[in-house]
Design a protein that fits this description.
The chain has 13 helices and 19 strands. It is α/β, with parallel strands linked by helices. Strands 1, 2, 8, 9, 10, 11, 17, 18 and 19 form a nine-stranded mixed β-sheet that branches. An eight-stranded mixed β-sheet has the order 5-6-4-13-14-15-12-16, with helices on both faces. The protein has a two-stranded antiparallel sheet with strand order 3-7. A hairpin with a 5-residue loop joins strand 14 and strand 15. The protein binds flavin-adenine dinucleotide. The site of flavin-adenine dinucleotide has 43 residues, from helix 2, strand 12, strand 16 and helix 11.
Length: 424
């Protein structure tokens, strides 16, 4: 795994061994990110045996590489749209899960004493145009109806809380915040192991075959036989599950961290230690790590000269948002893959009897994946599919997925054009 900021700050991962030989379990889980680990933790706590197979290291996918913002919403869909899309009972259930998702993350952090720099001071979404201020008001109204601890922020209040420039107002969800994301993944792994789950790193699943009423998940040096399988491989899904791979477009996103800021700047910039991400489709986002670095990032339509271009882009955007900062210098740059669906909504899939997956975080998976682990564990222990917070369907292949995966962020110029237009 290449060096990320988070790997220099996180406590070490619990030691695990690659799988050697055959073993059996109630559930085999492929992938040790938040989805696989949270599901394993809930399964083990309920007395079911779970074996997690990870191709690389715990948190080496998006879970250890993300920005660490704990955001209890989706990127695009607001509560009315979610309810319209799913109807009942799904709409109400899914909204309940989203509203409680950040609290669930922080409750788990406290309960298991995870050393992951968890800060629950709230998540703020500044509005980048006057029309987006109306959007922020609508978001507050809609989330408040579902019990979320939200508040509209006039421009002056937004500036007072964050010191940010160039925005017109915004809104706050007090249950959100930020974490060291890799340390959260390692904390979930440690909690799952203590509860009785088994994790094998450097154990890629390379085959998945039916075996006398169960499934056999093979790795280079062994196999797990289980009645139920969860594919928790998200944007890193490989050819072991071709139908799942075709249902998602992996998109590369870059992360950067500045040098630690001095106390004088920290009194002016994000003094309340909030997590912030704005209303743009080409998102601008910021929060502090434990050493006072600003952690931000962005995307490129084409990944050429990525380091130079990202550095220029992120430096310019940080200086626009926080003019006191001047021209920032950076300590870290890294990247990871986000799993996108065409409509920006997540899916729970049944790939065959006994094989399930959830996929499509669309960039908002820290809270969602951790919270969904509870429901996926219930499903894998035999709860009816009809009781899930989202409909359980067959995978939906995306037209020209392989080409879209190669093109990456080709839609970025369109997003920037949309961001520059006003909405009602
Ligand atoms: C750069 C970036 C920034 C982001 N920022 C945020 C943010 O601030 N807030 C937020 O809410 N969300 C954010 N996200 C999204 C969030 O990180 C993801 O939604 C979440 O981590 C997904 O967790 P997961 O467990 O489903 O997948 P992952 O963490 O990606 O885990 C999948 C795992 O499966 C493993 N795997 C794949 N194939 C195999 C195989 N055949 N055998 C064994 N193992 C396999 C991979 O090695 C990987 O470890 C961001 C994502 C990225 C990439």
């Amino acid at each position: 795994m290449s060096t990320t900021l988070w790997s220099t700050l996180a406590p070490p991962a619990p030691p695990t061994e690659p799988l050697r030989g055959e073993r059996t379990a109630d559930v085999a889980i492929v992938g040790a990110g938040y989805s696989g680990l949270s599901t394993a933790l809930h399964l083990a706590e309920a007395g079911a045996s779970a074996v997690v197979l990870e191709a690389d290291e715990i948190g080496s996918g998006a879970s250890g590489r993300n920005n660490g913002q704990v955001i209890p919403t989706l990127t695009r869909h607001d509560p009315d749209a979610i309810q319209k899309r799913y109807g009942e009972p799904w709409g109400g259930r899914f909204l309940k899960l989203l509203v409680g998702s950040a609290d669930l993350v922080y409750e788990r952090i406290r309960r298991h004493g995870m050393d992951c720099d968890g800060v629950q001071n709230g998540w703020i979404q500044p509005a980048h145009s006057p029309g987006r201020v109306n959007l922020a008001r609508r978001r507050v109204e809609q989330w408040a109806k579902h019990g979320a601890p939200v508040e509209f922020l006039e421009r002056d209040r937004l500036t007072e809380l964050t010191g940010i420039s160039g925005y017109h107002g915004g809104w706050l969800n007090r249950s959100g915040g930020h974490v060291n994301p890799l340390a959260l993944a390692r904390g979930l792994a440690r909690a799952a192991l203590s509860a009785g789950a088994v994790i094998h790193e450097r154990s890629p699943a390379i085959g998945l075959v039916a075996d006398r009423g169960a499934w056999r998940v093979t790795t280079p040096d062994g196999a797990v036989r289980a009645r139920r399988v969860l594919l928790a491989t998200a944007a890193y899904t490989d050819d072991v599950a071709p139908d799942l791979k075709r249902s998602i477009v992996p998109v590369r996103a870059y992360q950067m961290a500045t040098r630690p800021l001095g106390d004088n700047l920290r009194k002016l910039i994000l003094a309340g230690n909030h997590a912030v991400s704005d209303t743009r489709m080409d998102l601008r986002f910021f929060h502090y790590d434990r050493a006072g670095r600003l952690v931000s990032g962005g995307s490129l339509a084409l990944p050429v000269m990525a380091e130079e271009r990202m550095t220029r882009q992120v430096a310019r955007r940080l200086a626009q948002a926080f003019p006191e900062l001047g021209e920032p210098s950076f300590d870290f740059l890294w990247s990871g893959l986000i799993g996108m669906t065409p409509d920006r909504l997540p899916r729970i899939y049944r790939l065959a009897d006994g094989i399930h997956a959830w996929i499509g975080c669309n960039g908002r998976g820290v809270a969602l994946a951790t919270a969904l682990g509870r429901d996926m564990a219930a499903l894998l222990r035999g709860a009816p599919e009809a009781d899930m917070p989202l409909p359980v369907t067959a995978p939906e292949p995306i037209f020209a997925q392989a080409l879209l995966a190669k093109l990456g962020r080709a839609a970025l110029p369109y997003y920037r054009w949309r961001d520059s237009r006003e909405i009602g």
